[in-house]
TrEMBL record:
Organism, as annotated: Secundilactobacillus paracollinoides
UniProt function note: Catalyzes two sequential steps in the biosynthesis of coenzyme A. In the first step cysteine is conjugated to 4'-phosphopantothenate to form 4-phosphopantothenoylcysteine. In the second step the latter compound is decarboxylated to form 4'-phosphopantotheine.
Span within the parent record: 178 to 406 of 406
UniProt region (Phosphopantothenate--cysteine ligase), positions on chain: 15-229
GO molecular function: FMN binding; metal ion binding; phosphopantothenate--cysteine ligase activity; phosphopantothenoylcysteine decarboxylase activity
Gene: coaBC
Cofactor note: Binds 1 FMN per subunit.
Protein name: Coenzyme A biosynthesis bifunctional protein CoaBC
Similarity field: In the C-terminal section; belongs to the PPC synthetase family. In the N-terminal section; belongs to the HFCD (homo-oligomeric flavin containing Cys decarboxylase) superfamily.
UniProt KW keywords: Decarboxylase, Flavoprotein, FMN, Ligase, Lyase, Magnesium, Metal-binding, Multifunctional enzyme
Binding-site residues for CTP, renumbered to this chain: 103, 113, 150, 164, 168
Pathway: Cofactor biosynthesis; coenzyme A biosynthesis; CoA from (R)-pantothenate: step 2/5; Cofactor biosynthesis; coenzyme A biosynthesis; CoA from (R)-pantothenate: step 3/5
GO biological process, one term: pantothenate catabolic process
The protein's required cofactors: Mg(2+); FMN
Keyword Phosphoprotein part of the UniProt annotation: no
Enzyme Commission identifier(s): 4.1.1.36, 6.3.2.5
Amino acid sequence: QLLSRPKTVYTGKKVLVTAGGTRERIDPVRFITNDSSGKMGYALATELVARGADVTLISAPTKLAAPTGTHVVPVTTTEELAEAVTTHFPKADILVMAAAVADFRPKTSVTQKIKKTSDNDEMTLSLVKTTDILKTAATLKRPGQLTVGFAAETQNLIANATKKLTSKALDLLIANDVSQPGVGFNGDTNQVTILSKNKAPVTTALVSKTAVAGIIVDELERLVDSKEG
Ligand code: CTP
Ligand code: CA
């Protein structure tokens, strides 16, 4: 079956895809998370497998079934995701960071359920910043490795996304204006602007996440090509 597949630039390439929203525990019955469904990351993993890549999918919790042909590494917290990326990235040719990562986690972990009492009409939760996984990956990046990030923005899409392309040393950045209906988190559709260093941005129509995954993988293909010489 593998032999009958047409050869692509992705044939035999090791691609690490992260997906889903990380969870940070407040107490045994509560956690902080975000609106990520994992659909965009899973669609990318599916598309990359179809084009012959060897895909490891590091997945934060989702309701989705593992895409056929991927090696799934389940994680829950941002620190677990960071550790899994640090383990797998050195062996990978490409990292696609589609996971929606919690930026902050509770400062202290509580083993018992937090109770409401007669004297706590207000409560304050202290949070600390999590590891920026893509920034860590940037420090580990070897020549020839490609990194792809996402940017979820509600304003100044291109300006904010361009900053992330540079500060995270990315080869490709997928910018999402999540304030627009049908864009970004949770739904089955998306509209993205794909930024890269030496090429004009590419903006897709509002289409299915599967179609967006195809366009992203096409854009990435050019970079895989050029790096191959
Ligand atoms: N990301 C990461 N580690 C984090 C937070 C985000 O690797 N702790 C990655 C995401 O997976 C995504 C990219 O960084 O590919 C941008 O995520 P985003 O939330 O848009 O940007 P942040 O850098 O977290 O900045 P902000 O949320 O303040 O806009
Ligand atoms: Ca963030």
